[in-house]
Amino acid sequence: NAVTGRGRHTTTSALALPLPDGAGWVVDTPGVRSFGLHHVDPSRVIHAFPDLEPGTADCPRACSHDEPDCALDAWVADGHADPARLYSLRRLLATRERTEGD
Predict the structure, then answer these.
(1) Are the CB atoms for 30 and 14 separated by under 8 Å?
(2) Contact between 19 and 25 (Cβ < 8 Å)
(3) Which pLDDT does position 7 carry in this prediction?
(4) What is the pLDDT along the chain (102 residues), one digit of tens a residue?
(5) Cα angle at 46 between 41 and 50, to 5 degrees?
(6) Could you state, in order of their start, the residue ranges of all structural domains in the chain?
């Protein structure tokens, strides 16, 4: 495009490719420039982490899962889940706080 200096998207459908050994997916979504979770209630994000979800039973009411009294720290420290998974959850939740361009 002469005005924006960017290429033109010609692909019109999304493509999902599974990673080996069930490790996840790579999704190509042409034309999507950003992905946000502002519309998703934080209490629902934990459902995407079934290995961590049971650890929230002892969390304080309305826990953001990134505060000093969060029960997930003890859950992970006791070996119930991989610390990398808690880090991923917290990174994902932190994206709700950021706006485009941060």
Answers:
(1) yes
(2) yes
(3) 67
(4) 677 777 665 666 778 899 998 888 888 877 776 667 777 887 788 998 999 999 999 999 988 898 889 999 999 999 999 999 999 999 988 887 655 444
(5) 150
(6) 15-94
The three-class DSSP label of residue 58 is helix
Which DSSP string corresponds to 23-48?
A: --EEEE-TT------TTS-HHHHGGG
Token pair 């999902």 is at which residue?
Answer: 16
CA–CA separation, 8 and 31 (whole Å): 9
What number of other Cβ atoms are within 10 A of residue 71's Cβ?
A: 16
| Topology of domain 15-94, CATH | Ribonucleotide Reductase Protein R1; domain 1 (1.10.40)
> Which are the contacts of 46, defined by CB distance < 8 A and separation ≥ 6?
52, 53, 56, 65, 89
Give me the pLDDT at residue 28, please: 82
Beta bridge partners of 28: 15
